[in-house]
Design goal:
The protein is α/β, with parallel strands linked by helices. Helix 3 packs across helix 7. The longest helix is centred in the middle third of the chain and has 11 residues. It is globular, with a radius of gyration of 19 Å.
Length: 292
């Protein structure tokens, strides 16, 4: 997919506070929380790179909550839009980038979206959003919802992290706080100008500890995923162990963040360990993965 031919740029939304993931997000912005030992934001940027969308002229990242960490992490890989005060929301974040977007269509992705399709490298699984796009309609990536009539669904589908917006609608987004659902998606749906493009892989929004853990376990492929610099002398089963972590205890269906410690005699099960003193239990996911 040659995105330069259709005049498309990309925005990764990484400004949110991640309140449902607290207290993990009191230490890291949600966009930098690791899934399968890779920060979520890096997963999004790699996915866009698979479409040829790279660099500060083609990709922007917004930041607000713990924004200095996001800015330092992104560096020169993307254009940075730092929102003062509180996050502007999904629509406000895009509106704040209007001068940078400058007439192009926008592929908007949520940094906290975990998408995985083992049959394809990063990128092509969302390329269908761009294929034969007319530059005027709104497209959402989605999967069939368990309850097609539930609030928040579109044509019986649940949103899976990426949308494609035409400049004609981005141009008129009001400044200030707002969300894309009310500002663009629902009006486009009412006008018959919204299309849901099916996503064939697995999706988690990682917004809760349960879904965050589930995404990590999916990334581990049913086994252990251990960073080369981790020290593990204990027993691990279906675990993700980050760089520099030290595990002397028993870890099962759990995530140990980079640099964190599981002491001898400890049993970490169904939880996330951050540092040496923070353990966040993960209750069962409410909806499970979206997968086909």
């Amino acid at each position: 997919m040659h995105t330069d031919r259709v005049g498309v740029c990309a925005v990764v939304l990484a400004a949110g506070e991640g309140t449902r993931l607290r207290p993990l997000t009191e230490r890291l912005p949600k966009a930098l929380c690791p899934v399968g030992n890779v920060p979520l934001l890096d997963r999004a940027l790699d996915r866009l790179a698979g479409l040829g969308l790279v660099g500060p002229a083609r990709v922007a990242v917004n930041a607000c909550y713990l924004g200095a960490q996001v800015v330092a992490h992104v560096g020169e890989r993307a254009h940075l839009s730092v929102e003062p005060g509180s996050p502007l929301g999904t629509a406000g974040g895009v509106a704040n980038l209007r001068d940078w977007i400058a007439g192009r269509g926008v592929l908007v992705g949520n940094a906290d979206a975990y998408l995985a399709d083992s049959a394809r490298p990063p990128g092509p699984d969302i390329a269908a959003l761009l294929r034969d796009w007319d530059g005027e309609s709104v497209r959402l990536l989605g999967q069939p919802a368990a309850d097609p009539a539930a609030p928040g669904t579109f044509d019986g589908h649940a949103f899976t992290g990426f949308s494609l917006l035409p400049w004609r609608l981005v141009r008129d987004l009001p400044a200030g706080f707002g969300d894309l659902v009310r500002a663009i998606w629902r009006p486009a749906e009412a006008a018959g100008a919204l299309t849901v493009v099916p996503y064939p892989g697995t999706f988690y929004d990682t917004g809760t500890p349960a879904d965050y853990l589930a995404a990590n376990l999916h990334a581990a492929g049913g086994g252990n995923l251990v960073a080369p610099t981790a020290t593990v002398t204990g027993r691990c089963r279906e675990a993700v162990i980050g760089a520099g972590a030290v595990v002397h205890g028993d870890v099962e269906r759990a995530v140990v963040w980079p640099g964190a410690t599981v002491r001898p005699g400890e049993r970490l099960r169904g939880a996330i360990r951050a540092d040496a003193d923070l353990t966040v239990p993960a209750t069962p996911a409410s909806g499970g993965p979206g997968s086909t």
